[in-house]
Amino acid sequence: MIRIRRHEPGDDLAVSVLLDGQFEGAGMYQLVQQLRRDGDMALECVASEGDDVYGYLVFSHLKSPENWWCLAVVAVSSAWRQKDADAYLIRQSLELARKQAAQAVLVLGDPAFYTPLGFAPVSRREAILPFGEERTQVLYLDENTPQELRRVIYPDAVGRAART
Asked: Which of 1, 6, 7, 30 has the fewest CB atoms within 10 Å, measured from its CB?
């Protein structure tokens, strides 16, 4: 049975192996560690079945706008991705983000994948986006969130990773 839960310290080895395999090197796990050190981690979730971790997701706090999060990392083992576990992990994690009072979530990613999950494009005409205009999308989690987006400031670790 698929279980989505918050990350626990005992998950680190499995998460490291998953990220190293999915992203061909230690760079993504180093990003996760930097987000933790900098205090920019908003929420970490794992997808597991029994004792096996097959998915991992990270939300980081944006520096601006306040109470907005960034979907910084999503990784699901290839066998589980074929079962749409990545979309399930994201949907369930968004519910946890909503419960933690995140007002909105930005993602840099393929619109064909994220639009069916409720994300919508953000245009540069509406906001100052540091990178990925054509792939930057937003999902409002709180209906009272002002939808005037002026300037997006990512955590330093996310900004550095996106530029490389």
From this structure: 1
DSSP secondary structure, 24-53, as one string = TSSHHHHHHHHHHHHT-EEEEEEEEETTEE
16 Cα distance to chain centroid? 16
* 155 close to 63: Cβ distance less than 8 angstroms: yes
Q: What is the pLDDT of residues 11-28, one digit of tens each?
A: 999 999 999 999 888 889
Specify the long-range contacts of residues 33-40, CB closer than 8 Å, at least 24 apart. 34/157, 35/60, 35/72, 35/155, 35/157, 35/158, 38/155, 38/156, 38/157, 40/155, 40/156, 40/157, 40/158
3-state SS track over 91-103: HHHHHHHHHCCCC
CA atoms within 13 A on the CB side of 32: 25
